[in-house]
Amino acid sequence: TASMSPRLDDPMYRSVTFDDLRLAYKEQMTALVYGGVDILLIETVFDTLNAKAALFAADEVKDKTGINTPIMISATITDKAGRTLSGQTLGGFLASVRHVDYLSVGLNCSFGAKDMFPYLRDLSRMAPFYISVHPNAGLPNQLGEYDETPEKMAIQVKDFLDEGLVNIVGGCCGTTPEHIAKLVELAKEAKPHQPVSKPKYMWLSGLELFEVKPELNFINVGERCNVAGSRRFLRLINEKKYEEALNIAHKQVEDGAQILDINMDDGLLDGVSEMTCFLNLIASDPEVARIPLMIDSSNWKVIEAGLKCTQGKSIVNSISLKEGKEVFLDHARLIRKYGAAVIVMAFDEKGQADTLERRIEICNRAYHLLVNDGFNPQDIIFDPNILAIATGIEEHRTYAIDFLDTITWIKKNLDGAKVSGGVSNLSFSFRGNEYIRQVMHSVFLYYAIQRGMDMAIVNPGQAIIYEEIPDELRNLIEDVILNRRDEATDELITYAEQHKRRAIGKINTVSDEWRSLTVDKRLMYALVKGVPDYLENDLQEALTVYGNPVDIIDQPLMNGMNKVGELFGEGKMFLPQVVKTARTMKQAVAILEPALEKQKASQKKENKTAKLLIATVKGDVHDIGKNIVSIVLSCNNNQVMDLGVMTPTEVIINKVKEENPNIVCLSGLITPSLEEMCNVAMAMQKEGFSIPVLVGGATTSKLHTALKLAPHYPNGIVIHTKDASQVPGVVAKLMNPEVADSYINSVKKEYVDLRNESMETSEDILSLSKAIKLRFPIDWTSFETVRPNKLGRHILSSIPIKEVLSYINWKFFFSTWKLSGRFATISEQANVTNPENWLHSFAKEDREKATEAFNIYWDAMELLKKLVQDKVNFIRAVYAIYPSYSRDESLYINGMEVPMLRQQKQGKEGYCVSLCDFVAPYGSKRTDYVGAFAITAGVGAEEWLVKQNLESDDYHKLLFQSLLDRLVEASTEWLHQKIRKEYWGYAADETLTIKDLFALKYQGIRPAVGYASIPDQSINFILNNDLLQSDEIGIQLTENGLMYPNASESGFILAHPKSHYFAVGQIDEEQLDSYRLKRKMDGKTARKFLARNL
To answer: Number of helices and strands (H, E) in the chain?
Structure first.
């Protein structure tokens, strides 16, 4: 392959090159095209660089013959992680080859059709082309033969066709004419796949797809693999110490570089050879190779050499109009053939642009030349020249502000184009004073990112936070960058000289009485209290006492963990403390890791109570509850294997086969997750398993488990657990051979009783026609609707966290942490730093819990303070207000039908309510309105957490997730008030307090999708596709209509004073059929989304 070395001892070696392949493919294709083939199929792509050579050759053949032959391309997956042999994910592969206009993109060979299914589904959701598939007839047996019959393969392929995933179907290894005949029969009746629209964003890739979306805010391009900018890197390349040079790349990726700039431009180096060697070496390191590369050179031959080594979609840095239009376009066409994006320098025949006018002139000219020649605007990145300021030369004073103004102009006038730059140039006049340089870069980037700068070449390990810069220095540098004062440059030079030796850091010392205890008791104390400060020293001392690191884990550390489990089970320890304990234990094991490696041979296996497999089911991305359960189980001395979120049934089943766990735990928050849990139960029954399954999450219930889950798994038992505190007790009973059978039998008997009770009470449901007659009565003749101040759709692209803090309902925050909502009164205290009076307002037996509530509230406020300081842009919203009416159990919003469900049990007032009752009916001679909204508080949140190095800190990770959930609720409350008072204005005079809002004293309602009044999660597809286009604020939907990021909410806004919240409750088959026909759903899909209501 062109991407990998066949020699283990020489990762830079290649047995075949890009040009070897290109020439061979060109010869073959020329003969085939002249021979009259209808289609060229580049198939079984196991190395994307090989495929790119074939695509390059196809383009050359088209130019040579004048014949444009359609191209199909098909990759092969070689492992269950969904990667090609050369390591690329399907997304990475698509990004690498998307520069060609294909007849189809597909998969072939790989596994059999059954195991190919999830990857084909992923491909069909990403690729804006027709989809092909030709799988093997299963996997070969020991003799290399294929046993899968035509009938069995046809059953598996039918799933592809039923789901509308493909346009072209066929067979690969092991298939025969009989296999193909079966597929022909299936294809006659199948519905063809409808390709998705082209991506709205730039796609780049290394081994993995990197989408340059607005929510990324800013992209760090690592600068240290540049011989012109790093003396150390130059020395290592000169001395042929490539492995050490690769360590520099590693460090940049660890420090947060999202793209890696590679430059070999030095007069004493062979740039072509060094670029080739180093990129081949990078390809051997998956951690570095996973991110896109920026091939940086002023020598076109070096750029081409780099492009011939990279299977991913890279960026070329750079081309310009310096040599004129023809050379510029020739280079751009070649870059497009290689499948790369391009940086265009603001440079033309007259020289480098150094004013605002010249920057605009060159960028405008270059953009239209490229776009008119067929270059994708999303793949154009401008570098309008960041030049040195504070040099003392008058003309240089406007360099920075002109660059900033150029960004603004590009974003307004050159659709799709990106902006980049080499930030280190800015501070060139202060070389030797690294602190001043880094502060200048931080301030400059702060303003550049506000203007819309997409990426910059920086050293990610040296970033200084804007808010942490001393005010005096920050103001000075802003004066220089923004050219605000004539004397600013001289003042900055003076400041730099005076503070040349500035150091950053602080030392904290802590002393406590428990430090005088024995080492084993100190370690137990550290775990129980979650204090990691002294672990390093205490564990080193413990090694001298115990000798074997495993004994330290088995004795003082596990004793501490067992104590934690005991205290939590007794209610004497609270969830925030348990999470801190788990974090401390993780740190302790990491410190012991080197000693554990040394004594691996004598290492004793930990005596775990139970082995558990835990997962959030497919289509569901919520994991905070699952994470809490995982931590609690770990603290009770259990081995927990966490499969994460969005876990397909087949993955769970395969893991059960591989790991043989004692218990499986399934989590889900949304209604469709109930159906997925059902699928898992049925699959476990089919496989003959009998191990217990625990289910939990907001939508689960004991009744649903008894009615819908347990009957599908008669071999075993499905047990509903209400919350994390119940799980250890259930596990303990199941793992105790003396009580397990009697416990399981008691649960099964309870489920039988619940099913019988359910049958007895189900007669209370009214017929749909009778329920409609009992609709909520409103006199529309006496009601005057209010015309909204802002009709139509509107985006709020950045809602500051400070705006919504006062709307946080702390009761629900404490509830997440299994603490009483009574503790929310801490948020009303004037002096939070001295909570003594507040603590004494609780009974003596509650003060320990109150103290813990105070501690977690304090940590939450510190985290919120940090978010405010960092000016994060997590919160975004889109809302729309449209003319609407109700008719035949549906709302018609801006002409779009949105079916609603009606209660079929009478409420307290005797009515069967639907949301349709609160909107003026068709023919009422009233123009009514309905609002819709989607809001998220999670865009960029994961990246911020990683940047703070908190993603592996269980406590702060859970704290962060629980705060995001509260922030999105607070933001929704804030938005609803804004709509009532300003955007719509139907309650313009409202003067409610925050407590009034929490008590629902406002006019109108905002029913959320997936909740009691609108239980159908798939309504989100209508909101996203037809009313809001919420993907534009960074919200994505899973196949089950769940919003990602998790901290997101959507719903409708109704204004009538008599509108109120209600729960639809149980519905019958008649309403289900009526509803699904309006929604154009099949019965299975409707049941999946409305499982809780059936």
So the answer is: 39, 30
Note if 1073 is an active site residue: no
Q: What is the DSSP secondary-structure string of 528-592?
A: HHT--TTHHHHHHHHHHHHSSHHHHIIIIIHHHHHHHHHHHHTTSS-HHHHHHHHHHHHHHHHHH
Residues (pLDDT < 70) of the chain are 8, 142-143, 460-465, 467-468, 499-512, 554, 565-580, 596-597, 599-608, 621-625, 628, 635-636, 670, 724-725, 759-764, 829-834, 951-952
945-949 CB contacts, 8 Å cutoff, 24+ apart:
946/256, 947/256, 948/866
Instruction: Tell which of 164, 189, 214 closes a domain.
Output: 189
Domain assignment present for 984: yes
User: Which position among 3, 104, 110, 673 bears the catalytic label?
Assistant: 673
Do 1064 and 931 lie in a common domain?
A: yes
Instruction: List Cα–Cα distances, 1073 to 485, 1018, 1079, in angstroms.
Output: 72, 16, 10
Q: How many CB atoms lie within 10 A of CB 818?
A: 18
Q: Cis omega before residue 1018 (within 30°)?
A: no
**pLDDT, tens only, 161-202:** 999 999 999 999 999 999 999 999 999 989 999 999 888 889
In a domain, 1056, yes or no: yes
470-494 pLDDT, tens digit per residue, is 889 999 999 999 999 989 988 888 8
* 673 among known catalytic residues: yes
Are residues 1017 and 904 both part of a single domain? yes
Q: Are 840 and 854 in contact (CB under 8 A)?
A: no
Residues 49 and 150 in one domain: yes
In terms of domains, do 1041 and 1080 share one?
A: yes
Beta bridge partners of 834: none
Say what the pLDDT of residue 291 is: 96
Reading phi first (left if > 0) and then psi (alpha if -120 to 50, else beta), residue 256 is in: left
**Overall domain count for the chain:** 5
Range of the domain at 848: 801-869
Q: Of these residues, 193, 441, 622, 956, which one is catalytic?
A: 622
* Phi, psi values for residue 884, rounded to 5°: -150, 160
> Both ends of the chain: CA-CA distance in Å?
55
Q: Which residues is 695 bridged to in the sheet?
A: 666, 720
Distance CA 676, CA 649 (A): 8
pLDDT at res. 97: 97
State the amino acid at position 131 in one-letter form: I
622 catalytic per annotation: yes
- How many Cβ atoms from other residues are within 10 Å of residue 138's Cβ? 21
Contact 221, 421 (CB under 8 A): no
Task: Report yes or no: 768 and 904 within 8 Å, Cβ to Cβ.
Answer: yes
Task: Give residue 189's identity as a one-letter amino acid code.
Answer: E
Report yes or no on 244 lying in a domain: no
Looking up residue 1039, the CATH number of its domain turns out to be: 3.10.196.10
pLDDT of residue 838: 80
687 and 750, same structural domain?
yes
Q: How far apart are CA 273 and CA 276, in angstroms?
A: 5
User: Which is the catalytic residue, given 261, 348, 383, 620?
Assistant: 620
Residue 533: give its domain's CATH number: 1.10.1240.10
What residues contact residue 544 under an 8 Å CB cut-off, 6+ apart? none
687 and 812 assigned to the same domain: no
The answer to whether residue 756 sits within a structural domain is yes
Amino acid at 35: G
Q: How long is the chain?
A: 1094
CB atoms within 10 A of CB 839: 15
Residue 934 three-state SS: strand
Which residues on neighbouring strands pair with residue 422, listed in sequence order?
Answer: 457
Q: In terms of DSSP bridges, do strands 876-887 and 890-893 run parallel, antiparallel, or are they unpaired?
A: antiparallel
Distance of alpha carbon 232 from alpha carbon 670, whole angstroms: 53
